[in-house]
TrEMBL record:
This is Wax synthase domain-containing protein. It holds the Pfam family MBOAT_2. Keywords: Membrane, Transmembrane, Transmembrane helix. It is found in: Membrane. Residues 278-362 form the Wax synthase domain. InterPro entries: Wax_synthase_dom. It is a multi-pass membrane protein. Its main location: membrane. GO terms for cellular component: membrane. The chain crosses the membrane at residues 14-33, 330-347, 362-382. The keyword Transmembrane helix applies. The keyword Transmembrane helix applies.
């Protein structure tokens, strides 16, 4: 991605580099002194510093991919810092409700703030995302693994590749190996998974037209009507859809994991973090046998906690809806993905794709629809299973559920992929 960095010079990048330092430092100050900076002052400081950095972010470096990742993190980190600012507990208590459980009053306020300000997944806090370390519900359990023989976590914590109990340099060494592996896999991916090389006839803009974004209606017209659809469904189209879905899952995994491991190595080398504080940015793909689990158990959850805070603020305090109801959970899911869609559209627009504010937004707002469909199917299937299940049948039914689940996830990803990528490809 050459992007905006193709004509970069040091003098041109001086201001963006300075602002890229001032923005996180401002967020650090806001989070580090909750009893001295009130909520609205903190929100104002985060917004002002974030806006200044945002305006020059695409000129940070000559590397367009690095600039893109930084643009994304301004919004992800800014969203997290805003949530921390308006949820400010306004207390000198250590740890407060937002800080990791293990922080100590003897630590310098800036170091305690460090453990919170970039901690977008809530690692070590009471509000963290569960199962960031595979098989371990909360990260602090990694420090004191169970010794019970039947505890599955105990086995995970003693495996050769476990990083939770390693010392600083051992953890750094293993992550450097992963980093190099990721780098070569990503290079090979870009080299050999290029659509221009995979297809005998390279894809053109005619393959990404709007009438090819949907497929179900056209399939129904193919088999249920005599005239058929105006744009027939072809094998090539399904191949392109599958490739776009694969790129969304694998391409992002390799790229984001590469940056994640790099940050882990840097901060651990400086002695600011420990190995157990850097769980994998992605979960295990085998856990993604529903779309809800795809987003909650496999996909990176760097934006979820802050967007969920914003969604709860809107549904509870703005709309006045009661918490802990089925309707509220569904509404919050739509709000979370709506906010995520806004964030991604802002990024794409900043990178030169103004079409991101159009049909591309549907990709994000459609995700909770899958959750609702899954909930309905699971409800009725649960009733059917109770009637047909006999002693000894559990493993067969479990295997059937997994097979159907994986097939459903693949089908959904292939169906939805064009709604994300086609509008951006044909933007110009």
């Amino acid at each position: 991605m050459a992007g905006h960095g193709s004509e970069w010079t040091l003098s041109k990048g001086a201001l963006p580099i300075f602002l890229s330092i001032m923005w996180p430092f401002t967020c650090l100050i806001v989070v580090s002194f909750p009893n001295h900076i009130n909520r609205w002052m903190g929100v104002s400081m985060v917004l002002a510093a974030g806006l200044a950095s945002w305006r020059t972010a695409t000129e940070l470096s000559p590397d367009g991919t690095l600039n893109e990742m930084y643009v994304r993190y301004i919004l992800i980190g800014g969203s997290h810092a805003l949530a921390m600012a308006y949820k400010n507990p306004l207390t000198a208590e250590v740890p407060n409700a937002l800080e990791p459980r293990y922080v100590k009053a003897s630590w310098h306020p800036l170091y305690r703030g460090w453990k919170t300000v970039f901690n977008v997944r809530g690692i070590g806090t009471t509000w963290e995302n569960p199962y960031l370390w595979p098989g371990i519900k909360y990260t602090w359990q990694a420090q004191t693994p169970s010794t019970k023989a039947k505890d599955p976590d105990a086995k995970l914590l003693t495996t050769r590749h476990n990083l939770t109990g390693r010392g600083r340099w051992s953890g750094i060494a293993v992550r450097c190996e992963y980093l190099l592996l990721n780098f070569f896999l990503l290079a090979a991916y870009y080299e050999f998974m290029d659509p221009q090389m995979l297809f005998s006839v390279p894809p053109s803009l005619s393959d990404y037209t709007r009438d090819k974004e949907g497929v179900i209606r056209r399939l129904l017209q193919t088999y249920l009507t005599s005239s058929g659809p105006a744009t027939p469904v072809t094998t090539r189209e399904f191949q392109l859809r599958a490739l776009e879905a694969f790129d969304k899952v694998v391409g992002d995994l390799l790229l984001i994991s590469l940056y994640h491991d790099t940050c882990a190595v840097v901060w651990m080398s400086l002695g600011l973090d420990e190995s157990w504080e850097w769980p994998p940015v992605y979960g295990r793909i085998r856990e993604a046998y529903t779309m809800r689990r795809f987003w909650t158990m496999y996909w990176h959850r760097t934006f979820y906690k802050s967007s969920n805070s914003h969604a709860a603020l809107i549904s509870t305090h703005v709309l006045g809806i009661k918490t802990r109801t089925v309707f509220t959970r569904v509404l919050n899911a739509f709000l979370v993905f709506g906010i995520s869609g806004i964030m991604h559209s802002m990024v794409e627009t900043r990178l030169g794709h103004p079409c991101a504010w159009g049909r591309n937004m549907w990709y994000w707002t459609l995700q909770p629809v899958a959750f609702v469909l899954e909930g309905v199917v699971q409800f009725f299937w649960g009733k059917v299973r109770k009637r047909i299940e006999r002693p000894g049948d559990a493993w067969v039914l479990n295997a059937f559920e997994r097979l159907v689940g994986y097939s459903w996830v693949c089908a959904w990803l292939i169906w939805e992929a064009p709604k994300h990528s086609f509008p951006l490809i044909t933007c110009s």
